[in-house]
Design brief:
The protein is 9% helix and 41% strand. With 68 residues, the protein is mainly β. The protein has one domain. It has a five-stranded antiparallel β-sheet. Strand 1 and strand 2 form a beta hairpin.
Length: 68
């Protein structure tokens, strides 16, 4: 799974409880791997959350990438 604009496999989601905190992760196949151990506190599923590319301006749902 890659960003449809730039091909990057690095993404991030914003913490819905703190707009200044982000959780970065990589996508390998269908597996989401967070970069930091404190991302365990992120209770939402990244696939259903607004996801942003770490390299360019793409944003959308991770589920959108799987179906596209």
């Amino acid at each position: 799974m890659k960003c449809p604009l730039c091909g990057c496999q690095e993404f991030y989601v914003k913490n819905p409880e703190d707009e200044f905190e982000i959780f970065e992760f990589s996508v390998a196949g269908d597996r989401v791997e967070f970069h930091e151990t404190d991302a365990v506190s992120f209770s939402n599923e990244p696939a259903a959350t607004e996801t942003n590319c770490n390299r360019c301006s793409w944003h959308g749902r991770l589920n959108d990438l799987k179906s596209g």
